[in-house]
Design brief:
about 550 residues, alpha/beta, Beta-lactamase, D-tyrosyl-trna(Tyr) Deacylase, Chain: A, 3 domains, five-stranded mixed β-sheet, 24 strands, globular, protease
Amino acid sequence: MPARLYRRGLPLAAAALAASLLAGSAQADNPAPADATLTADLDALLADARLANAQAGVQVLDAATGQVLYSRQPGALLTPASTMKTVTSTAALDLLGADYRFTTEVRTTGTVYGNKLAGDLVLKGGGDPSLLVQDLDDLAAKVAASGITTVTGRILADGTRYDSTPLGPGWTWDDEPYSYSPQISGLTIANDAEYTMDTVQVTVTPGAAGEKAKVALVPAEAPMKFTGSITTGAAGSGASAGVDRRRGANELLLSGSIAAGAAPATYWVTVEDPATYAAKVFAGALARHGVTVQRGVASATGSETSTAIASHQSKTLAELIVPMLKISNNGIAEHLTKEIGKVKGGKGDWATGVAQVKGFLKANGLETPGGRQVDGSGLSRYDLINPAKMAGLLKVAQDKPWFDAWYNALPVAGNPDRMVGGTLAARMRGTKAENNVHAKSGSMSGVDNLMGYATAPDGHKLIFSVMLSNFAGTSPRPVIDAIAVRLASGPAATPSAPAATPVTPKLKSLNAPARGGDEATGAKSGTGTRWEDCESVGRC
């Protein structure tokens, strides 16, 4: 075992794991495992024609011992997509703690005279990725309950807990309107119970034929301007309505038509400047509770001298990783990355947060083989990691005090309950993997990954990491699912032939209204709300 591992002060277990990973990466593509049948079966699955000219990396470990049972390019640097959330979530649980909470405060500057505040109200963000519109209403009620009815100054939006860079390194400009690519701020609000942060819902309701359709925002205070209009077509005429956000502006471009008598269509669109957006929603809540703010909303500098008068705490981190992993919520992952940087490194930015995550990996013997991480969600094409490190992370996680909460937060294959099955709700149904495999998926154009745990019928648990990159045309996802099913079926299993039905790419468009939960993909469909299954639509 390399002496340098001990000189760096790694614990014995971590050093042993590091040596095991290095050995696994150095061996031939298909080393002789304990079960030769498994090798033959997985080799046969990976020979699928859909993987021709693509790159496949696979690592299978015995969960109890860490023994490498199967390996195919374990050290290849591949694009993780949303499987990067396994790294971010485990680091956050370890560095911040499963009971960690975010706190949002309302603070005052100046002096209160009777029912009048001669000064400003500060809405001070604490990085909460789950702050809801209702939570702001509750804070407004607390302000009113304190006796304040008039604020002579402004509401100051304070998102300065994190840096002023709203979008991650390597995120693409054409994803910006879509809800899987929210702007990241120390102060932001979520618009639904799944914490779809920094978005506004745009509902289009048809009128009588020939009239303009009604367009409404939820929340109504969202700072959106409309350009153009949507007309109401004849009954049965179909829909061609378009709701597109102009890049870099809170301006929605309306076009097309919706048929008379059709159901209202809802679109989800991101908002520029999340902190100001939150403050405007808060201003509306204050007005409803009888508090008048005389000078509107402005941005805080973060250096204001102020006194706290109300606060809201988020759910625990152990609870927040459920939507983060189940439905692959990118915003939560990025907030955790910046929060790790703020708490452990003194700066709420991506570079500091990622450096702390790397420190977590190193402390657990996972600093090698190398790779590259620039964000927390895997939205960036700059991210690179290999199957050996991913499998090693899953092995390390088992010995952590937070493991049970984390394991249960992973999507469960074939379970139709959205907050159980998550992105795997419609996958591997009717197989040995159903309600068995706990795993994180991750996909974007030309990339599809799955990594997690499979339990054989005899109770033997396996760890697996399957990463496919650089494919075009028909999706090879059935191959990935067949591998997971094979691992869940035990040593005597025969591999199922993966289905040959092509997966039709979904085109990302603001013109496709939300339909709620989409069991076909495990994703929440609609305007940019595709957390997963992102071939040709985005980067989750």
